[in-house]
Amino acid sequence: MTDLNSLKYTAEHEWIALDGDVATVGITDYAADKLGDVVFVELPGEGTDVTAATVVGEIESTKSVGELYAPLDGEVVEVNEAVVDDPSLVNSDPFGAGWLVKLKVDAAAVADLLDRDAYVALTGGDE
Description:
Elements: E1 8-9, E2 14-19, E3 22-27, H1 29-35, E4 38-42, E5 49-50, E6 55-61, E7 65-69, E8 74-79, H2 81-85, H3 89-92, E9 101-104, H4 116-122
Antiparallel strand pairs: 1-2, 2-3, 3-9, 4-6, 5-8, 6-7, 8-9
Subunit structure: The glycine cleavage system is composed of four proteins: P, T, L and H.
Cofactor: (R)-lipoate
Protein name: Glycine cleavage system H protein
């Protein structure tokens, strides 16, 4: 189980796990629950430069279509092909096998993101 308190979060319901200068990015269980059953995931290609707060992909569910935003400036260094092949991983394991992309980032930029308490407050106290 991932330690949710060790992650950083965005107001767009993404989580970020930093390892050196590589940030693993996914959507939170809150977002996955609100989306419903995820049926399609479109992610940026490896080597793509992304800019914070810009749309870099799409997540479609049985309820709606959601946009995936880059949480930080960086370069896509890995894409989770397993989640492209089996989008239900976003629902079944959002903090594990359902991760989306890995970005090479300026590690200092992560400090500006939300901690777990601030994210829980943002979502109205829903864990």
